[in-house]
Write a structure and sequence with these properties.
A hairpin with a 4-residue loop joins strand 10 (about 175) and strand 11. Helix 2 (about 25-35) packs across helix 4 and helix 6 packs parallel to helix 7. The chain has an eight-stranded mixed sheet with strand order 3-6-2-1-9-13-14-12, with helices on both faces. It has a two-stranded antiparallel sheet with strand order 4-5. It has a two-stranded antiparallel ribbon with strand order 7-8. About 35% of the residues lie in helices and about 25% in strands. By secondary structure, the chain is α/β, with parallel strands linked by helices. The chain starts with a strand and ends in a 6-residue tail after the last strand. It has helices at about 10-15, 25-35, 50-60, 70-95, 115-125, 150-160, 210-220, 235-240; strands at about 1-10, 40-45, 100, 105-110, 110, 130-135, 135-140, 145, 160-170, 175, 180-185, 185, 225-230, 250.
């Protein structure tokens, strides 16, 4: 397992999902300042929120490969580049060394390019922070698909085997009951069936919280603990990254007999 922290910043954290094309710059700046406190190599993945998701809904684009509207492909992609630039600029102002890159650099459609993914680890080890994101990607034969940031987390974790995997959302963690918001501090892979997930009123073509939990369980089944924390409290990201107790939910890794 690598000395590496892999963090997903949810679209609900870095944008206002009910306000099209509006970044949550205050939250992004606070996260950037908090990440500066970490000594370990870090790779950041961020979601689309009111940028990529907004346009993908307008152009009826999904994770299923299809011949989507070419203008829509361009708009969705460029909106994600724009959001990535906001996040990268914030990190630079905080004294970090971010390196924004689109997922097509290290994937082919939905498939990983292992050698390129390993280069991200080398970059992170040189005190440069790769910052990638969910995006619309070319598949083949004029077909494109949405590759979510949550799916990217599993792709990266499978190859790099990070020591810390963190999903930062706009809620405190995984709830056993949505009405009382009863937080589950720890659960195993077998506990996934008991988790109840609400459907956000804001359209999300990549599956919202349900997708995050699904990918968290996939990663845990590969042998890595996964923390789900509230990214609007960035000190919790730092605590999770350094192994200190914090408010959140841990999906515990599957242990071999």
């Amino acid at each position: 397992m690598q000395n590496l922290v892999l963090v997903k910043l949810g679209g609900s954290v870095v944008t206002f999902k009910d306000k099209p094309l509006t970044a949550n710059t205050e939250a992004i700046d606070r996260i950037s300042k908090s990440l500066k406190m970490l000594d370990a190599p870090v790779i950041i993945v961020h979601g689309g929120g009111s940028f990529g998701h907004y346009w993908s809904v307008q152009y009826d684009m999904h994770t299923k490969a299809s011949r989507y509207d070419a203008h829509g492909v361009s708009i969705v992609h460029e909106s994600m580049i724009a959001l990535n630039q906001v996040i990268v600029n914030s990190m630079m102002r905080s004294g970090l060394n971010p390196y924004g890159l689109q997922p097509s650099v290290f994937t082919s459609g939905q498939r990983p390019i292992t050698a390129k993914i390993r280069q991200l680890l080398s970059m992170a080890g040189s005190r440069v922070t790769p910052v990638t994101f969910g995006d619309v990607v070319y598949v083949d034969r004029a077909k494109y698909s949405i590759l979510s940031g949550d799916s990217l987390m599993t792709i990266l974790a499978k190859v790099l085997r990070p020591s810390r995997v963190i999903f930062a959302t706009n809620v405190d963690g995984i709830y056993s009951d949505l009405e009382s918001k009863s937080l589950i501090p720890r659960l195993g892979v077998a506990g996934s069936r008991s988790v109840k997930v609400s459907m956000n009123s804001v359209a999300d073509v990549t599956g919202g919280m349900k997708r995050k939990i699904t990918e968290a369980f996939k990663i845990a089944s590969l042998g890595m603990d996964v923390m789900v924390v509230n990214g609007l409290h960035p000190e919790r990201i730092v605590a999770a990254a350094t192994g200190r107790p914090t408010v959140g939910s841990m999906v515990m890794k599957r242990r071999r007999p």
